[in-house]
Design brief:
By secondary structure, the protein is an alpha/beta fold. Helix content is 61%, strand content 7%. The chain contains 19 helices and six strands. Strand 2, helix 3 and strand 3 form a beta-alpha-beta unit. The radius of gyration is 27 Å and the shape is globular. It starts with a strand and ends in a 7-residue tail after the last helix. The mean pLDDT is 91.
């Protein structure tokens, strides 16, 4: 099988003054686009074959920006500046590709539109769109001579735009939050609809899996929507809401392991644990390999028609007259009544804690605090000091949960990896130090004062 990777140059400056088209450099945005695609090209193995670049300034700069993001040991000696690639004619580009040597099994072309789009549309009926700036397509072809390529004979294996590879780029183009009103019903309705739009917009980045921030923001918006819905159910009766919230819960749970792995890896890079370089590198490699199965499962789930129908159903539901009628029944008084009950339950749970309480008791307390905070957020009249107290408490309990998660993954690493006695002892010692950290956090939780709204 042969592999052809097609990349359009990143966003370039417009013509000005005496500048020729050939001299147009990249914009700042274009440089960010190109840098964002470096892990994509590396992950797709696009840099392991021959790399052909148009001599125009914007295409050469696109590759240069990719190259600076690569590890120092990445080989890029196979780069060729090809005059023939400075073309906007698809037929001319096709003839050039057909003339590639038979020994080339992987080829990356960095060139121009509309030539690139015309080429891929000729090669694959699946590629029916034009390439955005900085985007990359991966086509697979039969293992025969380039000369014998046939129209429609290639398969589109993967495609990605920079805004799906980098959350930083996506954020600039993400759905704009509405101007939230003080009136509670309108405020909550607008918030839920915005979160639903964000979830849909974030999904391509989640599926691509190159920037974990997509997954983090995806989880945040899913869980906020669910928390708001659960808070609403605690105040008023809404037919059909419980069933839909259950679906949001299951989708959020499907992302839990991926989130935990990402948090753990970030922690290892930011605060290296007391492990030898050899053991630490082994742990990182093991953790990096773990998400593959979970990500594949999540990708399959997000790609199903059933998932699309469920998300559309949620969007239709929260925009319905019935749901808006339920929202209209919310008042600060009714919110505070339920809030007082939740605070009382949280205080009872806190008073029942001791140093002998299991981890699950603190995890349950964290969930209660989170529900209180989301409920309090519904009321624009909630005191800032109260919200700040909740945020601190949630952060403390979240830190406790993160330490527990590190222990779980570390224990799994010890059990599943071929470690020698010295490495196992390092891991066991670190596990013990994590237990000490938990003990300190546990005592800090016990020292918290009862909540008061």
């Amino acid at each position: 099988m042969r592999h052809l990777y097609v990349m359009r140059h990143a966003k370039a400056k417009r013509l000005s003054g005496d500048m020729t088209d050939h001299q147009r450099p990249l914009q700042k945005w274009g440089k960010r686009q190109a840098r964002a695609m470096a892990p994509v090209l590396q992950g797709w193995q696009a840099l392991e074959g021959e790399i052909y670049v148009s001599p125009a300034a914007r295409t050469r700069e696109t590759f240069d920006q990719v190259a600076v993001q690569l590890p120092s040991d990445t080989q890029t000696d196979q780069v060729h500046i090809e005059q023939a690639l400075y073309t906007f004619d698809g037929d001319m580009l096709l003839e050039w590709v057909k003339a590639l040597p038979d020994g080339v099994e992987r080829a990356l072309i960095i060139g121009h539109d509309p030539a690139l789009s015309d080429l891929v549309r000729w090669l694959s009926h699946e590629a029916s769109y034009s390439l955005a700036t900085g985007s990359v397509l991966h086509l697979t072809l039969p293992d025969s001579s380039w000369t014998t390529m046939e129209q429609g004979g290639a398969e589109l294996a993967e495609s990605l735009v920079p805004e799906e590879a980098s959350y930083r780029l996506f954020k600039r183009l993400a759905p704009t939050p509405p101007d939230y009103q003080d009136e509670i019903a309108s405020r909550i309705g607008d918030m839920l609809e915005h979160q639903c739009r964000l979830v849909s917009a974030l999904e391509p980045g989640v599926v691509a899996g190159f920037d974990p921030e997509f997954l983090h923001q995806y989880r945040v918006n899913l869980r906020r929507s669910r928390a708001v819905g659960e808070s609403l159910l605690a105040i008023v009766k809404v037919s059909g809401l419980k069933k839909r919230l259950k679906r949001l819960k299951h989708l959020g749970q499907a992302t839990s392991d991926l989130r935990d792995l990402d948090v753990f890896l970030k922690y290892l890079n930011k605060s290296p644990p007391p492990l030898s370089a050899r053991t630490l590198e082994g742990l990182k490699q093991w953790l990096q390999a773990c998400p593959q199965a979970q990500h594949k499962s999540l990708y399959q789930r997000l790609s199903t028609p059933e998932h699309a129908e469920q998300l559309q159903g949620w969007q239709t539901f929260i925009a319905s007259d019935e749901f808006k009628q339920a929202l209209s029944k919310l008042t600060p008084k009714r919110i505070n009544k339920v809030l007082d009950k939740r605070i009382a339950c949280q205080n009872d749970d806190l008073a029942a804690l001791s140093l002998d309480s299991p981890d699950s008791a603190l995890h349950e307390l964290r969930k209660r605090v989170k529900r209180i905070r989301y409920l309090a957020d519904l009321n624009p009249e909630a005191p800032t000091s109260f919200l700040s107290t909740l945020k601190h408490r949630q952060s403390l309990l979240g830190e406790y949960q993160d330490v527990c998660t590190r222990q779980i993954w570390l224990d799994a690493f010890i059990e599943s990896s071929d470690l020698d006695a010295e490495q196992k002892q390092e891991c066991v010692s670190w596990y013990a130090s994590l237990e000490e950290s938990k003990h300190k956090l546990h005592k800090e939780v016990l020292g918290l004062a009862p909540l008061a709204s």
